[in-house]
Design a protein that fits this description.
Length: 268
């Protein structure tokens, strides 16, 4: 378990969302004719994730997945409801929660002139890791993700987007977060890189007792990796169960997704 103490070893609930809602108000300038626009990005979401679970959040573009991840990661404040990470409230205990979680998203920021290793060492320092531990751990993770030693010391700006994505994942795993939030971790990766990342996510759970919440548009990935998935539609949870139970005879998870989100479209 992480150096930051989780309130009690007997805490089995890693994440508890209670009636979470998040709105965005888009303000128009005085001379613009359109009225202010209010978007309900997350609408009354309640769910719990057990310690050690890999939990998937699925949903069409704009259904609220990233917003929900950002609320959990303390980047956004919820407008309604509460979020607890291992019994700690994300608003009241923001600093302690931050030490338990790490988020990877497609818009990960780096020092682009520096190499992956320099970026990892910097992150390790922020989390109190010694230089040698960070370098050793960083190299091991990067290698498991298929990043060759040669590239490890080249500037980030010369790397492809997919490779930068892998460095973002390595950086998040370096500090062995207790709760790992992965927003589309494999989007844009080639098939082998995708497999490497999926394998690493599975081993984080086994080797480091991590709990993982991930979003993905890849239904096979969700089926393979996730113990349970929630399907979001217009910010609401419209299904939540194990992939096996969601799939009825002969259905793939993609069939289930199409049916569920299609029904919602028609009802709207
Ligand atoms: N900063 C923002 N300001 C205004 N509206 C926003 C903002 N961020 C998100 N939204 C809106 O909230 C809704 C949910 O967006 P979100 O990014 O959470 O969706 P998503 O499920 O992650 O989509 P995708 O699959 O495309 O990543 C969308 O309608 C989006 O336009
Ligand atoms: Mg998103």
């Amino acid at each position: 378990m992480n150096a930051v103490t989780v309130r009690s070893e007997s805490v089995h609930t890693a994440l508890a969302l209670r009636a979470i809602s998040k709105f965005f108000q888009t303000r128009r300038l005085p001379w613009q004719a359109q009225p202010h626009k209010r978007t309900v990005a997350v609408d009354d979401v309640s769910l719990t994730v057990q310690r050690g679970e890999i939990f998937g959040i699925l949903g069409a573009n704009g259904s609220g997945k990233s917003t929900l991840i950002r609320v959990i990661s303390t980047l956004l404040l919820p407008d309604h409801g509460s979020v607890e990470v291992f019994g700690l409230d994300v608003v009241r205990d923001e600093l302690r929660v931050k030490q338990l979680i790490n988020r990877v998203s497609v818009d990960a920021a780096f020092f682009k002139k520096l190499s992956p290793m320099e970026n990892l060492l910097y992150a390790g320092r922020l989390y109190g890791l010694g230089k040698d531990d960070a370098a050793r751990g960083g190299l091991e993770i990067l290698e498991r993700l298929g990043i060759t030693r040669k590239v490890v010391f080249e500037p980030m700006e010369e790397m492809s987007r997919g490779m930068q994505q892998k460095v973002a994942i390595a950086r998040a795993l370096l500090t062995s977060p207790v709760l790992l939030l992965l927003d589309e971790p494999t989007t844009g990766l080639d098939p082998r890189s995708k497999k490497d990342v999926q394998q690493l996510v599975l081993s984080m759970r086994h080797e480091h007792d991590a709990t993982v919440v991930l979003t993905t548009h890849d239904m096979d990935e969700a089926d393979r990796l996730c113990d349970r998935v929630a399907v979001l539609d217009h910010g609401r949870v419209i299904a939540l169960d194990t992939p096996e139970r969601l799939k009825t005879a002969g259905d793939s998870l993609e069939d289930v997704f199409m049916r569920l989100t299609g029904e919602e479209e028609q009802a709207a």
